[in-house]
Specification:
The complex is a heterotetramer of chains A (489), B (217), C (315) and D (602). In chain C, 71% of the residues lie in helices and 1% in strands. Chain C is mostly helical. Chain D is globular, with a radius of gyration of 27 Å. Classes of the chains: A mainly alpha (489), B mainly alpha (217), C mainly alpha (315), D mainly alpha (602).
């Protein structure tokens, strides 16, 4: 697993290069993202096959779960970086971004990618917390990149809520460290995740309950779970689209990864019941909270942001239900959501730049003017709202099936899932249909739609195929992740 | 042995006093200087802990606290205030009297909650943990009642200090490289916030976060 | 092969009998009504003279009319001719009993109504449209009453076969007429009045545009087609009377060639009795406004429903 | 047997008699409408690839009937809905098209959610998603859950079938879709709702309580009567036909309901009779509804409008369309000797026999009442199609476009002619067809221990349509030939008499006027709304013009669906105020969440 540090190093180096090679920063970032995609896939599919392994003297720990997150971050960062090339060029053309700022855009972009890769790879819980905090800090300035009042407001709230949330996360982490050092003695590795996991039963139960609650609220804030999601629509709505892709597709999953790690610790100490019920409750709450905001929404990207809140809720719900089927479906759903949400944001970004606004009231008849993003938007919406034959339906079907077979609270969760997805389907399609079809008011200039966005067809095709047939490599991957999440020592 | 515990208890009480005082003052620069005081007291606590436990990394933690929390962060805050030429906080949401009463109530809750945490055989300073919880609650109170961006940042750093104190007491500090990571993280956070505050001030030509309420629904 | 010939012969015999009697029944009703109203009235054979006069006269066809106008009389007459042969009033099993039952009878009535209503619309005149619209509206309310009544009657013999129903009554005798059958008979009588366009529902004798339902559709016809249509509508009336006879007093049917003349006489007597009843009803009640007809037919449906409930509960 | 994307998920196929029957209906109708599409497609805007989508639509429907497990069924089911949603959106520039498409796809998706819940409850009972397992474990599940599954399935499949009160998408989506698409949707797609309901109540669930059948009969009666009443009030030809689909689904539901009730009471012969009646009507309705929609499409492309008030006199200008539309109208009005009459006759028989053989009075009365409703529906259907055919084809053209209409091309006429002949053929060959249906449907669903099926009710009453089809023309010929014995007569052509003035199109009876008596007779159910505007010449009492506008109150849309959505949106607006933009409030939410979590963690 010597590739792990390389995976973090490449974006770091790219970030530095971007600053120095100002003009060709876009090319550097795109190339770096392709390289990380290759390395990430190798690490991910490697981790699916072989059981967990440590590297760099225990500093790095890669098992199936971290492999999945690495794969998601690799895919999403590739889409984001490739789309950023065209997006930034358009933004510079329309004067939204000053040419001098371009290098800093890519600098922070690659830095945040590096931080996101670090989260799943680091074995030490403290360092993982630092990595998550770094993802917040590196993306904060990106959210405020457009220097508009709204963007600054979004960035400020993003930073403040994120920092307070993670502070509570740190406090939870601290209590875990106390319980671990109290039980395992002074070993500095008391914060190494796999050690803790092995000795989880020895930890003090009452402390671990408080610690899990703190961590769930702390990392939950970063994962956009309700009621700590309030920063998410502002940040994703105001950020430049490639950053929204990164935030929605990759960052939420990293934060959720943190929650899942502690969920495994909590199950080790307290048994499955306590933390699963908490996860199930907060998941169902997130789905229900997202519904009203999708129904009466006035901005396209905020609509997609609330959809992310809903889908993080679905994944939490799935892990809460537990059992091999639900955990397999949870892992599957994380990948589906990342792919579908990235395509949606790319299509929304293309339309936003074309029409010059993202207000749903002024976006009409896109199919006539920009057929490809309009089609991408509609197909993406059908996919993200869990409509067969797209893959998100398959994973949600698996979660609902596990819910119906599981304990009463799981059944309630499955019913909330079905009802929530139907309502969100109605709301989102109502808005997206008015955007995509009908007659477009003005003639947005054709140049808006860059070549880069034309490749959103790739993830959509993948989602369509995975809806019915899973490549064996991915199937084993999800089974391995289900194994990691499900094993009770 | 218990004299170390007594010293830490004394310092903890001092910390609590400083925190309660910060709730009452209006001046922003005064707020920053309160942070310096808090950080200094924390450094002393770390030092006594190092003396008591003899652990070498405690000394490093104490030194780091002094340089980062007591010197670097306040320096950045003061630079912001000078760049923005802002002196006073506008009228906060809660009047001083109410804020103080609320702060005292929160402190009581903190003592009650800490009791429940029964960190039995931690460092013998039995009232240091409640103080850290009090610091966290007061910091949150500062953030939710102040309007100016910088004072919200001061509230945030108070919360961080509270957690750091709890860390010192309960587990003699985190493993060293984690400690370094957290400090580095705090520094970068303050830096980024500083840049953001300047941009907000440049765009809205005021630090009042009431401007930042237009993203709704 | 031989009994097929006799069956065909029997069928044409029954058809001939129906065609012969149809105008007579109407003449009889007019005669009795005139008597009750203290006037001489047209001679009994007047309908025969009218029909044969019309069959020999030339006809005037509207230039807007299409093939529907030309073929409607044929379809209208054919429907009732076939319906006539389904009824066991002359011979025990009806000539076409094997091919259709009570529901087929109702279907044939619907086919005739469909053809004539379209013909009414075809010439584009407002009166034709009004006639068709009111005809189908009234029929829409009459049909549920007929169906429910037929269900009540079919209840006792198990199936909807007309010959089966009347055979059951013959074997069990008049005493077996349970109260539900009387209710069904009442419903059917009201429905028959509405279908044949007699007084409470529609006035067959008048040509006042605003009141006529059935006549409205025939307004544009003249000469031979009008003759055919008149004869067919009279046949319709006789078929409906025969339906009542077949269901409720099917006595004195012929089962062998010898008894045919007797059966014929009995049929004439029964038709005369029904004609008498109809004229009594007509002279004792005034024509209802078109929007009051639904109440009448509503009552008919209620009666039929009561019959069913009585049948189901009493058994 | 493909391994599915979820652990333990297997994609299987199950083809038995029932799926073969439905596949046959799908293939035959879609072939005919396919040819029609080639001809009719020229007149309407269609987006590239709509031909491909059409083929995918047909394959998706086939997928539904051959699916062997819940997952494949759902994939095929929703693909069918999505593809038809895209096809409905062909003319997306018009606002009502977009609204109709949205209502359609949201209602179908909600129906799918109900179906998914029913499937998962079934899977919970039998431990697998494969249909064969469900049939095997059918008797294991307890009555309570079976009833819940039944109701969920009824709502899900009922929405797809267009059953009242879940029908509102049908009269909105079908008229706006291109003719060949609405022909296929109305003729075949809504039947898959019936297919699902049949599988649910006969294959996957054991014989349930009698109230299942009663519920279907009740909803069937409502669908039939209200469907035809709303159709009568329409003056848009395609909306009229769409409401008729609701009515005919009601008729099919009579058969299904009678079969379900008979199965609950253990009357094997009646189940066979009622089920074959329902399936026979599925085939018949597919033929004449597709024919009528193609006719309406031909009128739309020839005249340019579907509004009955502006058609008229097309019989001379479009004779072949008129003839096939006439045959279709006669068939749907259940007139002998066509196929519509045969299947309605069978439905009447099954309702009567069920009424007679049911022991308790209350279960006996319901089928008989349903028979009354069916009779009322039949008569009203006759009225509706006299109006539809009469007003659009006969007498004088009411608009210049109607006057200038020309016959459509051969590619459109041939499919219509074939379906018209099919209506006649199915009528005449009713007996062999029904026997074939009896043998096709698997024995488990159709215990026909009675005599070989065919148009004979078990206890007497026979229908031989070929016989009647022989008698009618002979007597018709007789009626025309016999008077010739009295000598030749001449027919003179002259103006229609209109009280002395030349006949104008304005004198003709309009569709609205034709339906007026029925509208007044059923005003309590239909609730007509009438507004009359009188414009006087300036300053005088002389009337310059009178505007008469009448429409019927959309009860379901307004009081059920709009009420629901308005309340939902109002609730959403209230919740939206939670995101009020202030950082302090958001921090308060976070702190509250922390307190709750800590309390739970105690």
């Amino acid at each position: 697993m010597t590739l792990a540090p390389v995976l973090i190093g490449v974006p770091l180096m790219a970030a530095l290069l971007c600053v120095f090679l100002g003009r060709r920063a876009a090319a550097v970032s795109a190339a770096a993202s392709v390289v990380t995609l290759a390395i990430g896939s190798v690490i991910a599919f490697g981790s699916f096959a072989v059981p967990a392994e440590r590297a760099l003297g225990g500093l790095v720990y890669v098992d199936a779960l971290s492999g999945l997150i690495v794969l998601i971050v690799a895919l999403v960062s590739a889409i984001a970086a490739l789309y950023a090339v065209a997006y930034v060029r358009n933004a510079v053309a329309t004067g939204e971004i000053a040419p001098a700022q371009v290098r800093w855009f890519y600098f922070w972009l690659q830095l945040s990618i590096a931080a996101m890769f670090a989260v799943p790879l680091l074995n030490n819980l403290g360092l993982m917390w630092v990595a998550v905090e770094m993802t917040t800090l590196t993306t904060a300035l990106l959210v405020a990149f457009f220097r508009r009042g709204h963007a600054l407001e979004a960035a400020w709230k993003y930073l403040m809520i994120g920092a307070v949330g993670l502070a509570f996360g740190l406090f939870g982490l601290l209590l875990t460290y106390y319980a671990a050092s109290h039980a395992l003695g002074e070993a500095a590795s008391a914060l190494a995740w796999d050690e803790l996991r092995a000795h989880a039963s020895a930890l003090d139960p009452s402390l671990m309950r408080v610690a899990f609650a703190l961590v769930l609220v702390g990392f939950g804030t970063k994962a956009g779970l309700a009621p700590m999601h309030t920063w998410l629509p502002d940040a994703h709505g105001q950020a430049p689209t490639p950053v929204s892709v990164l935030l929605s597709g990759a960052l939420l999953n990293c934060a959720l990864y943190g929650v899942l790690r502690f969920h495994l610790l909590a199950t080790g100490t307290l048994g499955v019941q306590f933390s699963s019920d908490l996860l199930l409750g907060i998941g169902a709450l997130s789905i229900l909270v997202a519904v009203p905001f999708v129904l009466v929404q006035h901005d396209l990207k905020r609509l997609l942001a609330y959809s992310s809140v809903e889908h993080m809720g679905i994944v939490a719900l799935a892990v809460g239900i537990g059992g091999p089927l639900a955990l397999f479906a949870a892992a599957f759903h994380m990948l589906n959501h990342a792919l579908a949400k990235s395509t949606l944001f790319v299509a929304a970004g293309a339309l936003g730049q074309g029409y010059g606004t993202l207000r749903l009231a002024r976006l009409h008849g896109a199919i006539e003017v920009a057929p490809l993003p309009a089609l991408g938007l509609v197909l993406g919406t059908l996919a993200i709202t869990g409509t067969p034959p797209f893959a998100p339906f398959t994973s949600e079907f698996g979660i609902a099936q596990a819910g119906f077979l599981g304990r009463p609270s799981a059944l309630v969760g499955a019913v909330v899932l079905l009802a929530g997805t139907v309502l969100v389907f109605g709301g989102m399609l109502f808005h997206v249909l008015r955007v995509a079809v009908g007659t477009s008011p003005g003639r947005p200039h054709k140049a808006a739609f860059p070549f880069a966005a034309s490749f959103i067809g790739l993830p959509l095709a993948a989602l369509l195929v995975m809806g019915v047939w899973l490549p064996p490599a991915l199937r084993n991957g999800f089974t391995a992740v289900a194994g990691v999440l499900g094993v009770v020592p | 042995m218990n004299d170390a515990g007594a010293v830490v208890d004394g310092l903890a009480v001092a910390l609590l006093a400083v925190a309660l005082f910060s709730v009452t003052i209006r001046g922003l620069v005064a707020g920053v200087w309160i942070l310096v005081a808090q950080s200094a007291l924390l450094a002393l606590v770390a030092a006594t802990m190092a003396l008591w436990s003899g652990a070498t990394h405690m000394w490093a933690a104490a030194f780091l606290t002094l340089t980062v929390r007591a010197i670097a962060v306040p320096a950045v805050l003061l630079w912001i205030l000078r760049a923005v030429a802002l002196r006073r906080e506008t009228r906060p949401l809660l009047s001083t009297r109410h804020a103080l009463i609320l702060a005292l109530a929160l402190t009581l809750i903190a003592f009650f909650a800490a009791g429940r945490l029964e960190l039995a055989d931690a460092f013998p300073a039995h009232n240091a943990l409640p103080v850290s919880l009090a610091l966290i609650f007061v910091g949150l109170l500062l953030m939710t009642t102040r309007r100016k961006a910088v004072s919200q940042l001061v509230g945030l750093i108070t919360i961080e200090n509270g957690i750091f104190l709890a860390g010192l007491i309960a587990t003699l500090g985190m493993p060293l490289f984690v400690e370094i990571g957290i400090f580095f993280d705090l520094l970068v956070a303050v830096g980024v916030t500083a840049v953001l505050t300047l941009r907000i001030n440049e765009h809205f030509d005021t630090m009042n976060t009431d401007q930042l309420r237009r993203l709704r629904g | 092969m031989s009994e097929a010939v006799t069956a065909a012969g029997l069928a044409f015999l029954q058809l001939a009998v129906f065609l012969a009697l149809a105008p007579g029944v109407n003449g009889l009703i007019k005669q009795i009504k005139a008597l009750l109203q203290g006037r001489r009235g047209p001679p009994l054979l007047q309908p025969y003279f009218d029909i044969f006069k019309l069959l020999r006269k030339d006809s005037v066809v509207s230039d807007h009319a299409s093939a529907v106008f030309r073929w409607a009389p044929a379809v209208y007459a054919a429907a009732f001719a076939t319906a006539a042969l389904l009824l066991p009033v002359l011979w025990t099993p009806a000539p076409l009993a094997g091919w259709g039952d009570a529901l087929a009878l109702v279907g044939l009535f619907a086919l005739a109504r469909f053809a004539l209503a379209l013909a009414g619309l075809d010439t584009g005149s407002a009166f034709g449209g009004m006639g068709s619209s009111r005809e189908v509206a009234v029929a829409a309310l009459a049909e549920p009453a007929i169906l429910l009544a037929l269900f009540a009657v079919a209840w006792r013999s198990g199936g909807t076969d007309l010959s089966g129903m009347s055979a059951w009554l013959q074997t069990h005798g008049a005493a077996a007429l349970a109260p539900s059958q009387l209710l069904a008979a009442g419903a059917l009588v009201i429905a028959v009045i509405a279908e044949t366009g007699r007084v409470p529902a529609d006035n067959p004798d008048t040509h006042l545009e605003l009141t006529m339902i059935h006549e409205g559709m025939l307004l544009e016809y003249s000469g031979r087609p009008l003759g055919i249509l008149m004869w067919a509508s009279l046949l319709k009336q006789t078929v409906l009377f025969a339906l009542l006879i077949a269901l409720f007093f099917p006595f004195g049917l012929a089962s062998s060639a010898a008894e045919l003349p007797l059966a014929l006489a009995v049929l004439v007597l029964k038709l005369g009795a029904l004609g008498l009843m109809m004229s009594l009803v007509e002279s004792s009640s005034a024509k209802l406004r078109i929007l009051k007809v639904p109440e009448l037919l509503g009552a008919a449906s209620a009666l039929a429903l009561l019959a069913l409930v009585a049948e189901v509960v009493v058994g | 047997m493909l391994t599915g994307p979820l652990p333990g998920l297997v994609l299987t196929w199950q083809i038995d008699g029932l799926s073969a029957f439905f596949a046959l209906v799908i293939l035959s109708i879609s072939a005919v409408t396919g040819i029609y599409a080639l001809g009719n497609g020229r007149h309407h805007a269609s987006f590239p690839g709509s031909g491909g989508l059409y083929v995918l639509f047909v394959f998706a429907m086939l997928g539904v009937v051959v699916a062997g497990d819940a997952f494949t069924f759902l994939i095929a089911w929703e693909t069918m809905s999505l593809v038809s949603f895209a096809l409905v959106l062909t003319e997306h520039r018009r606002e009502e098209v977009r609204r109709a498409a949205w209502v359609y796809v949201v209602m179908t998706h909600t129906a799918t959610a109900f179906i998914v819940s029913a499937f998962l409850l079934l899977a919970r009972g039998s431990g697998s998603l494969v249909f064969a397992e469900w049939t095997a474990h059918a008797s294991a599940s307890d009555a309570g859950i079976a009833s819940v599954i039944f109701v969920l399935g009824l709502v899900g499949f009922g929405t797809k079938a267009g059953m009242i009160p879940l029908h509102i998408w049908l009269p909105q989506a079908h008229p706006v879709a291109p003719a060949h698409v609405s022909a296929l949707m109305s003729g075949v797609m809504i039947k898959l709702g019936i297919y699902g309901l049949l599988r649910l109540s006969f294959d996957w669930l054991a014989p349930g309580p009698a109230w299942w059948g009663a519920l279907i009969l009740g909803l069937g009666a409502a669908s039939a009567v209200l469907g035809v009443l709303y159709a009568l009030m329409e003056h848009d030809l395609k909306r009229l036909l769409a409401y008729h689909s609701v009515e005919n689904i009601g008729i099919i539901l009579f058969g299904v309901g009678a079969a379900v009730m008979a199965r609950a009471l253990g009357l094997g012969a009646i189940v066979a009779l009622a089920l074959s009646a329902a399936l026979f009507h599925v085939a018949n309705h597919a033929t004449f509804k597709a024919l009528l929609f193609m006719g309406a499409g031909a009128i739309d492309s020839a005249v340019g409008t579907r509004d009955l008030e502006r058609l008229g006199g097309l019989v001379r200008r479009m004779p072949f369309t008129a003839l096939s539309f006439l045959v279709g109208s006669a068939a749907i009005s259940a007139l002998p000797p066509l196929n519509g009459f045969a299947s309605e006759w069978l439905t009447f028989q099954s309702l009567l026999q069920l009424g007679r053989l049911a022991e308790e009075p209350q279960t006996a009365l319901l089928p008989l009442l349903a028979g009354g409703a069916l009779a009322l529906t039949g008569a009203l259907a006759v009225a509706c199609f006299v109006k539809a055919f009469g007003v659009s084809f006969l007498a004088l053209p009411r608009s210049t476009q109607a006057a200038a209409a020309r016959e459509v091309g051969a590619l459109e006429l041939i499919p219509m002619a074939t379906l018209a002949l099919l209506c006649i053929a199915l009528g005449l060959a009713a007996v062999p067809v029904v026997t074939a249906i009896g043998s096709l449907v698997p024995a488990a669903m159709l215990p026909h221990d009675g005599p070989a099926l065919g148009l004979a009710a078990p206890a007497g009453g026979r229908l031989v349509l070929p016989g009647i089809a022989l008698a009618l023309p002979t007597f018709g010929a007789l009626a025309l030939l016999l008077p010739r014995l009295l000598g030749p007569v001449r027919a003179r052509v002259a103006e229609t008499w209109a009280c002395g003035i030349a006949l104008q199109p304005v004198h003709e009876y309009t569709a609205m006027a034709f339906a007026k008596p029925i509208r007044l007779m059923f005003r309590d159910i239909v609730r007509p709304v009438r507004d009359i505007g009188v414009v006087h010449r300036s300053g005088t009492r002389f009337v310059a013009s009178v505007h008469y506008r009448s429409h019927i109150a959309p009860i379901f849309e307004r009081y059920v669906y709009e009420a629901l959505t308005d309340r939902l949106v109002a609730m959403a607006r209230v919740v939206r105020t939670l995101q009020n933009g202030s950082l302090q409030t958001y921090l308060a939410y976070l702190f509250a969440a922390l307190l709750v979590a800590l309390v739970l963690a105690r």
